[in-house]
Amino acid sequence: MLNIWPELPISVIYDDPPVDTNNVVAALKLKGSVSNIDLTVNSAVWETFATVMQDPFPMLEYLSVESYCGMTPFISDSFLGGSAPRLQRILFRDIVFPALPNLLLSATDLVELWLWNIPHSGYISPEEMVTSISLLTRLEELSLQFQSPRSCPHRAGRFLPPLTRTLLPALTYLSFKGVTEYLEGLVMTSLYWK
C-alpha cells in the first residue's frame, strides 16, 4: 500500500550527541531521495556518516556540516562523489575540506555559501576560492570567516591583477572575517559583483 505514494524528499538532521547514528546512516543510504542534510558532529561520528556519503546525492539541495565540541571533521576528496549539481545552499562550520573548490565547480545552482570558522588547516587560497566560485552565477550570499587570524599565509609578493574578471551578478551579501590580505586577494583576483 505504501508504494502508491510518490517518492518524497528526505531531510536528514543529526544534532550530536542525542540521536542514534543508525537511523541517520539508514536515511543517508537513500541517496536518490535525500534533499537536505544538516549534521552537527564530532570527528568520530563524522567518520560513520562520511563512509555513506562517498557517492553522489542527485537530489541534494541543502548541506550543512558543523563540528561539535571543537573536534574538526575532515571531508575527503571523494565526498558526494565530487559532484553536487542541484546543491543550492552550503554551510560548513569548523570543517576541513581541501577539495571544496572542486565540489563548488559542479554546484552551479549554488545560491548561498557560508564557510564559518575555517580552521587554518582548511585554508583555501583567494585564487582558488575565486576560481571555484567563478561559475556560480546564481550565488547571492557569500560568507567567509576564518578561525585563526592566520587566514593568509605569508606570500613572497603581492597579488597580481588577473587577465580575466569573475562577475557574480546575483551576489547581494558578502561577509568576511579574516586578515585584510585575504580579502584583498579575493578582490585582486577578480571577484566582482553588481
Structure description:
Helix 3 packs parallel to helix 4 and helix 4 crosses helix 5. Helices cover 21% and strands 25% of the residues. It has a seven-stranded parallel beta sheet, with helices on one face. Strands 7-9 form a two-stranded parallel sheet. Strand 1, helix 1 and strand 2 form a beta-alpha-beta unit. It has five helices and nine strands, in the order βαβαββαβαβββαβ. With 194 residues, it is an alpha/beta fold. It has one domain: Alpha-Beta Horseshoe (Leucine-rich repeat, LRR (right-handed beta-alpha superhelix)).
Record the SSE blueprint:
Blueprint: E1 10-15, H1 21-28, E2 34-41, H2 43-50, E3 62-67, E4 89-93, H3 100-106, E5 112-118, H4 126-133, E6 141-146, E7 166-168, E8 173-177, H5 180-188, E9 191-193
Parallel strand pairs: 1-2, 2-3, 3-4, 4-5, 5-6, 6-8, 7-9
Helix pairs in contact: 3-4, 4-5
Termini separation: 53 Å
Query: What is the overall shape?
Result: globular
**CATH class annotation:** Alpha Beta
Instruction: Count up the domains.
Output: 1
Outline the low-pLDDT stretches: none
Structural class: alpha/beta
User: Beta-strand level of the residues, as a percent range?
Assistant: 25-35%
How would you characterize the largest beta sheet? Answer: 7 strands, parallel
Helix count, per DSSP? 5
Radius of gyration: 18 Å
Task: List the main descriptive attributes of the protein structure presented here.
about 25% strand, globular, about 190 residues, two-stranded parallel sheet, 5 helices, alpha/beta
